[in-house]
Write a structure and sequence with these properties.
- By secondary structure, this protein is mostly beta strands.
- The protein has one domain.
- The protein has no helices and eleven strands.
- Strand 3 and strand 4 form a beta hairpin.
- The radius of gyration is 24 Å and the shape is elongated.
- The N and C termini lie far apart (62 Å).
Length: 144
């Protein structure tokens, strides 16, 4: 229990360095969005001689969230974001080999996935975790 607070309130307060209690009751957890949704769609087209072509798209949306427990400073608010990915894959007969072209974060969105504020002993800097920019490529695979 924090000195000077009734036991019923002790879990809802945090002391700043100056010793003044701040109520945390009703605040969101840090780095915890209130909602997210992921979805995907895939279609396989059989081709001649046992080949197949697979097209896939998927997306992910996450609501905004707070990067600290105080929920009061606009600079501590992490914005919502949406990501979309796509890929196309050609499979050989009996899946002996494949070639896949892909693009991740196809709209090249900049987004923050989390943050924290460091300890006063280190200068109270803010460290943000950012997602990857748009990436694309080709992958090859074989079944031995």
């Amino acid at each position: 229990m924090i000195a000077g607070l009734p036991a019923a309130l002790a879990g809802h307060y945090h002391y700043f360095a100056n010793g003044e209690p701040v109520s945390l009751k009703g605040n969101s957890l840090q780095n915890m969005p209130t909602g997210s949704i992921g979805f995907g769609a895939q279609y396989t087209q059989p081709l001649d001689s046992g080949f197949s072509l697979i097209a896939r798209v998927d997306g992910y949306w996450q609501s905004d969230m707070w990067g600290t427990i105080f929920n009061d400073n606009p600079t501590d608010r992490i914005s919502s974001y949406f990501l979309a990915n796509a890929q196309m894959q050609l499979n050989a007969p009996e899946s002996k080999w494949y070639i896949r072209a892909f693009i991740n974060n196809m709209f090249d969105k900049s987004y923050v996935t989390g943050m924290y504020v460091s300890d006063p002993a280190t200068g109270l800097f803010t460290n943000e975790f950012v997602g990857q920019p748009r990436t694309f490529g080709i992958a090859l695979g074989a079944k031995l």
